[in-house]
Each structure stands twice: as structure tokens, then as C-alpha cells.
């Protein structure tokens, strides 16, 4: 983070302490603000005066799609509301101290409707952009879609995949870090197998060789790699998915708000649409019970498919 962000983080927490907020509230607020500053830094924003309302909105969209780091799945609405409360406190602190006029009003925190799933045509549009020859990461991006849509993996599961987890001879992917630390094997269809094999034998080696300094050491175990040859983070994959979406020629798709988890929802609804039994879909997704999988049936019953 920038020196200004470091200073503001420290002074903001001291401000809350002087107002007699509980130690837990101060600690949590500091953690939430730190995440906000880290996200801004990744957006190449180093100063408070460079933040605009749209970026605050983008951050909230990011939180809606960021995986829960303790429990699998998305962040709860209550947890996101705590982030929003912290941002409002921080906005008030900046105005009181005269350090900036960053006004974070409730109406600035509205976001577009979150998609429940993508249609098959929309998925095809993402694959089309990913596979274009003028996309320098075409094989890697196609592999990413294959992991999260083709195999229905959760965000954390895909991020944790190693090369050794891809069992080509058995046409299986070994998920080591599933929900609640539960392991499972996921089948690869022929297209997913081909996509992963092409990426591993060609573009992945190129990414490993891009790291020439000790600062960015390549991760020779990780399956999905970032542009510096290190393990591709959830945030990096989320950003890339947004890039793919915005490169499509589908106006409706561009308007939708979604993250990596939408690919998992989409393959589940598409399998259900094709008539696959709920028990098989549940096993494929690694659900603990059929009740969890049944949430997809309303899409069929309500005519959304």
C-alpha cells in the first residue's frame, strides 16, 4: 500500500479508539479498511483524492463475488454490510479531519442486479473471447473457464489446484481443498481434458519462464498461473473474468454482475436442464446434501431456463 494509505489506516483506527469503540469493532474496521486499500492498490490507485463513486461501487461488486476465506461460498450480506459501515465511518472521518471530501452515501453503494446463472450462449461468448488468437493468454483463460464452468469448481478449489491434481489418464480432477476440507474427484469431459492439456503443455510453460527476478518466483506446482508465473489469485481470476465479459459482443452479458461462482451455478443449471438427475449433479458439485443442490430446481420450475 502507499504511504498515505498506511497513515490513514493507522490514524483512522486511533480515531475510532478515541470515540470509545470496542477493541473488536476497531480491529474489524481496520481489517475492512485494509482490504479496501489493498483493492485500490491493485487498481493502481494510491491516493484518496483519486477515488470516485464508481470505484466504490466496483469495490462492493467485488465483495459480492469474493469467496469466503473461512467457509466456502460467498460473503454473507451481514459481512458486506459491515464493510459498508466501515467505509461510511471512514468517509465521515476524512471530512471531520479535513483530509479529503470523500462522501460515501447509501445511494452510491447500489449495484447492478447479480446474475443467478449465465445462459449457454453467454458461456459460449466467454469461451469465444478467451480462445481468440489475439488474446495472449488464450489457452490459460480457456483453462480457467474449463475449471470453473466445465468442472464446476468453487473459486478456492480452482485457485488451489496443482498440476499433480489433473489426472489425465483417469479423466479426473482431484480436489484437495473442498468445502469443509472434504476431498473429491471431479470428471473431465473430453473438451475440458483437451483444453487443460493444451494449456499445460504450451502456455503454462511460457508463463513459468516469464519470472526472471527473485521478487516473483514461479510456482511450478500451481495449475493456473498469473502473468508473472505465480499461482493465479482469486482476485486476478475475477478481474480476468470481467475483462472477458467486457470483450464479448453481448450487450446483455456486459450488463450482468457476476464473479467466478456464476460459472459453477451455470453448469449446474445447464446439467439440470439436460435432464441429469439431481443426485449426480450434487455429487459433481461436491454438495453435502441434496437440499443444497435443490436450489437450482427453481430456475427450471420458474421457467428461467
Any chance you could write out the topology, listing elements then pairs?
Layout: H1 3-18, H2 23-42, H3 53-65, H4 77-97, H5 120-130, H6 138-150, H7 155-160, E1 166-167, E2 172-175, E3 184-187, H8 190-208, H9 234-247, H10 251-255, H11 261-273, H12 278-285, H13 290-293, H14 297-301
Antiparallel strand pairs: 1-2, 2-3
Helix pairs in contact: 1-2, 2-4, 5-6, 5-9, 6-8, 6-11
Q: How would you sum up this structure in a few lines?
A:
With 305 residues, the chain is mainly alpha-helical.
Architecture overview:
With 305 residues, the chain is mainly alpha-helical. 55% of the residues lie in helices and 3% in strands. It has 14 helices and 3 strands. The protein has a 3-stranded antiparallel β-sheet with strand order 1-2-3. A hairpin with a 4-residue loop joins strand 1 and strand 2. The longest helix has 21 residues. It is globular. About 2% of the residues have low confidence.
Q: Which structural category do the helix and sheet elements fall into?
A: mainly alpha
Kindly estimate the percentage of residues that lie in beta strands according to DSSP.
under 5%
Poorly predicted runs are: 108-113
What is the approximate shape?
globular
Number of strands: 3
> Sheet with the most strands?
3 strands, antiparallel
Radius of gyration: 21 Å
Mean pLDDT: 83
- Count, helices: 14
In which range does the helix fraction lie?
A: 55-70%
Q: Between the first and last Cα atoms, what is the distance in angstroms? A: 45 Å
Q: Which strands sit side by side, in order, in the main sheet?
A: 1-2-3
Question: Helix and strand succession?
Answer: HHHHHHHEEEHHHHHHH
Amino acid at each position: 500500500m502507499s504511504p498515505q494509505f498506511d497513515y490513514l489506516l493507522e490514524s483512522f483506527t486511533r480515531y475510532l479508539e478515541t470515540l470509545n469503540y470496542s477493541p473488536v469493532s476497531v480491529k474489524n474496521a481496520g481489517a475492512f479498511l485494509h482490504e479496501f486499500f489493498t483493492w485500490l492498490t491493485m487498481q493502481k490507485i494510491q491516493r484518496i483524492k483519486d477515488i470516485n463513486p464508481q470505484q466504490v461501487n466496483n469495490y462492493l461488486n467485488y465483495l459480492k463475488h469474493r469467496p469466503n476465506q473461512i467457509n466456502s461460498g460467498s460473503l454473507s450480506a451481514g459481512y458486506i454490510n459491515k464493510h459498508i459501515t466501515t467505509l461510511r465511518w471512514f468517509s465521515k472521518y476524512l471530512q471531520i479531519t479535513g483530509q479529503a471530501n470523500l462522501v460515501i452515501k447509501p445511494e452510491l453503494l447500489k449495484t447492478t442486479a447479480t446474475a443467478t446463472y449465465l445462459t449457454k450462449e453467454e458461456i459460449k461468448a466467454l469461451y469465444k473471447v478467451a480462445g481468440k488468437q489475439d488474446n495472449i493468454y488464450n489457452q490459460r483463460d480457456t483453462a480457467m473457464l474449463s475449471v470453473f464452468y466445465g468442472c464446476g469448481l468453487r473459486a478456492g478449489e480452482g485457485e488451489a489446484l496443482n498440476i499433480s491434481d489433473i489426472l489425465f489418464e483417469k479423466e479426473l480432477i482431484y480436489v484437495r481443498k473442498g468445502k469443509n476440507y472434504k476431498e473429491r474427484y471431479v470428471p473431465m469431459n473430453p473438451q475440458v481434458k483437451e483444453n487443460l492439456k493444451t494449456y499445460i503443455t504450451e502456455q503454462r510453460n511460457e508463463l513459468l519462464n516469464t519470472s526472471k527476478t527473485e521478487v516473483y518466483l514461479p510456482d511450478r506446482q500451481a495449475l493456473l498461473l498469473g502473468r508473472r508465473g505465480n499461482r493465479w489469485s482469486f482476485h486476478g481470476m475475477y478481474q480476468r473474468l470481467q475483462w472477458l465479459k467486457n470483450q464479448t459482443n453481448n450487450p446483455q452479458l456486459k450488463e450482468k454482475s457476476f464473479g467466478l461462482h456464476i460459472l459453477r451455478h451455470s453448469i449446474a443449471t445447464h446439467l439440470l436442464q439436460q435432464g441429469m438427475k439431481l443426485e449426480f449433479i450434487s455429487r459433481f458439485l461436491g454438495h453435502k446434501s441434496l437440499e443444497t443442490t435443490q436450489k437450482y430446481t427453481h430456475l427450471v420450475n420458474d421457467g428461467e431456463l
